[in-house]
């Protein structure tokens, strides 16, 4: 296994695995820390990404989960390690990005690593150590009002320094543009053995060429850290073969727990063409199971009249929906969408899009899915994957980070499965 990866949420893990597959490497995502038996069932992998639910966990919990994942990846024979966080550097002031990186470096005895959240394909770039979302500094982007991790500064150094025990340095874009040899020399000078503390080096990157330069320069580092975009700097292999996955045709559905600006745009686009229902938050507070049942009954009736219909279920379509009691509402939405997903699979859904990292994690948990084999790409950072539910049902899942995907994704993503997927084995309709 060439790479063992630790990701801080479900959609981030699939983003990263998708990036590796786009470079011709066979990749899978495992939900939670895998056992030796789990790893033995995932044959022929170049990359294994362990998907944790640690982004907003207390730092001690995040570190504990990450170190357990690292031990499993070491046992699996991984040669190099990738600590993956969001391309918008989502974090609270006390963690968890810094503490997790420190813990991984400490366990492996490594003197430091790079810090590269840039993902230019999705508009995330770093210049002079400042993180941009499109043309906006991070703290002027919609991430400023994120319900769980509001980002009020664009300086990566100022965000990282309170979280880490390591030194924090910066390599500017001018050095990156001198090429991989010059950058390698700079990194070797900053990340040196024998120092009192490890060094984390923030590296500017504004396009894919910069990512390729960074990956080439960092080839001697056992640990790298970044968003999923950094993996796009790996030299390309046979992408088409790496993306071939089983597929079981069946009903389709879209479930949205994310309240991000991009997902709200996708909901607005989807509502113009798809039958839809919005979760009733007050009803969820009274009885989650009853509200989930109402949605499942609606979908069942819809399919009885139009078998090819694609129901769209969402929790938020405007900023006003986010105004009150966000934490409680988010937990209820996750619970409801997971119950709806289970019910819809029982009704014959075999192709399912889930928007939002926390919601995606809860859905795969309730379906009993342990791992995803990454397949055809939908858009930068988003791909279809094959999964096996606890009852043996083969599913095609697309788990989307809230801010990723084209505006029309909920109506166009299905075509990406055609040609890149193979008929599933032993997965007849249930």
From TrEMBL:
<keyword id="KW-0119">Carbohydrate metabolism</keyword>
<dbReference type="Pfam" id="PF07005">
    <property type="entry name" value="SBD_N"/>
</dbReference>
<dbReference type="InterPro" id="IPR037051">
    <property type="entry name" value="4-carb_acid_sugar_kinase_N_sf"/>
</dbReference>
<dbReference type="Pfam" id="PF17042">
    <property type="entry name" value="NBD_C"/>
</dbReference>
<feature type="domain" description="Four-carbon acid sugar kinase N-terminal">
    <location>
        <begin position="4"/>
        <end position="232"/>
    </location>
</feature>
<protein>
    <recommendedName>
        <fullName>3-oxo-tetronate kinase</fullName>
        <ecNumber>2.7.1.217</ecNumber>
    </recommendedName>
</protein>
<keyword id="KW-0547">Nucleotide-binding</keyword>
<dbReference type="InterPro" id="IPR010737">
    <property type="entry name" value="4-carb_acid_sugar_kinase_N"/>
</dbReference>
<comment type="function">
    <text>Catalyzes the ATP-dependent phosphorylation of 3-oxo-tetronate to 3-oxo-tetronate 4-phosphate.</text>
</comment>
<dbReference type="InterPro" id="IPR031475">
    <property type="entry name" value="NBD_C"/>
</dbReference>
<keyword id="KW-0067">ATP-binding</keyword>
<keyword id="KW-0418">Kinase</keyword>
<dbReference type="GO" id="GO:0016301">
    <property type="term" value="F:kinase activity"/>
</dbReference>
<dbReference type="InterPro" id="IPR042213">
    <property type="entry name" value="NBD_C_sf"/>
</dbReference>
<comment type="similarity">
    <text>Belongs to the four-carbon acid sugar kinase family.</text>
</comment>
<keyword id="KW-0808">Transferase</keyword>
<dbReference type="InterPro" id="IPR050007">
    <property type="entry name" value="OtnK"/>
</dbReference>
<feature type="domain" description="Four-carbon acid sugar kinase nucleotide binding">
    <location>
        <begin position="253"/>
        <end position="410"/>
    </location>
</feature>
């Amino acid at each position: 296994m060439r790479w063992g990866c630790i990701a801080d949420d479900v959609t981030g893990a699939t983003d990263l695995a998708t990036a590796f597959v786009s470079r011709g490497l066979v990749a899978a995502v495992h939900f939670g820390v895998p056992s030796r038996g789990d790893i033995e069932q995932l044959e022929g992998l170049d990359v294994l990404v362990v998907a944790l639910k640690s982004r907003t966990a207390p730092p001690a919990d995040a570190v504990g989960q990450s170190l357990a994942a690292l031990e499993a990846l070491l046992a699996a024979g991984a040669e190099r390690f990738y600590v993956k966080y969001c391309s918008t550097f989502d974090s609270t002031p006390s963690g968890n990005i810094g503490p997790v990186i420190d813990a991984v470096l400490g366990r492996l005895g490594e003197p430091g690593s790079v810090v590269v959240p840039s993902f230019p394909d999705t508009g995330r770039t770093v210049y002079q150590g400042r993180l941009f979302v499109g043309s906006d500094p991070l703290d002027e982007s919609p991430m400023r009002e994120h319900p769980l991790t509001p980002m009020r500064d664009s300086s990566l150094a100022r965000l990282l320094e309170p979280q880490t025990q390591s030194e924090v340095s910066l390599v500017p874009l001018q050095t990156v543009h001198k090429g991989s040899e010059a950058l390698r020399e700079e990194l070797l000078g900053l990340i040196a053995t024998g120092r009192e503390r490890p060094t984390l080096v923030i590296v500017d990157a504004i396009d894919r060429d910069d990512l390729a330069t960074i990956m080439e320069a960092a080839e001697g580092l056992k640990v790298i850290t970044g968003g999923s975009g950094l993996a796009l700097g790996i030299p390309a292999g046979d992408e088409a073969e790496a993306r071939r996955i089983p597929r079981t045709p069946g009903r389709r559905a879209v479930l949205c727990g994310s309240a991000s600006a991009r997902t709200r745009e996708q909901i607005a686009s989807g509502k113009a063409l798809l039958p839809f229902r919005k979760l009733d938050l007050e009803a969820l507070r009274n009885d989650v199971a009853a509200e989930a049942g109402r949605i499942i009954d609606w979908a069942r009736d819809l399919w009885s009249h139009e078998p090819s219909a694609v129901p769209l279920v969402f929790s938020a379509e405007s900023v006003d929906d986010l105004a009150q009691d966000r934490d409680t509402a988010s937990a209820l939405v996750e619970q409801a969408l997971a119950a709806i997903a289970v019910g819809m699979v029982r009704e014959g859904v075999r192709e399912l899009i889930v928007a939002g990292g926390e919601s995606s994690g809860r859905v795969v948990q309730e379906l009993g899915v342990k791992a995803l084999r990454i397949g055809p790409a939908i858009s930068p950072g988003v791909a279809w994957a094959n999964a096996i539910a606890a009852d043996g049902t083969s599913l095609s899942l697309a788990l989307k980070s809230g801010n990723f995907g084209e505006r029309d994704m909920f109506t166009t993503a299905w075509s990406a499965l055609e040609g890149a997927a193979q008929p599933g084995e032993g997965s007849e309709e249930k």
